[in-house]
Predict the structure.
Amino acid sequence: MQEGGVVRRVSLSNCGLVYELTPYGRSIEPIMLALGRWGFQAMGDPEPGDVITADSLTMALHTAFMADRAVDAEYELHVGDVALRASVREGELRVSQIAPPAPPVPPVGGSLPDAEPDAVIVAGPGIRHLIGGEVTPAEALAADIVAVVRGEASLLDSFAETFHIAAPGVGRAREAQEVGAFD
């Protein structure tokens, strides 16, 4: 991949070598995100013992990010041992890893924003049902799929609008129902 110009080796002080995508390598991102949205439709719930990593949660957020519907906010998301900061500004998403701490330094996604998050959301793997539009934010709160432990609970509506992948016929039907299309 290095010879093909997809990745390059980069030296990090006190951390050794890492590989990073070149601009050419980053050009495949829209295709990878489209594949992620496609695969989300067939993805089931995690099995006991399945591990959610900072990388998998970061990729899930990028895959579900709806730039055209994004609401500017700072979200801190905790799923299991993973904590991320999702910064949404002007239709752009930046995700920074809070926990677990891991090299390289600075943290993946760059340094954390100085401001406190607007909402701190704690969830289990069932958050995929909220992102998939299978449950509304109110239903997710009532079923203990998620909890807003800091900030206004109404920010969960903004989160669900900003991070959304609808399975055909599931999320879209619920959306139509919410706006009264079946009345």
About this structure: Confidence is low (pLDDT under 50) at residues 170-174. The first helix runs from residue 23 to 26. The beta strands are 7-12, 16-21, 73-79, 82-89, 92-99, 119-123, 146-150. The radius of gyration is 17 Å.
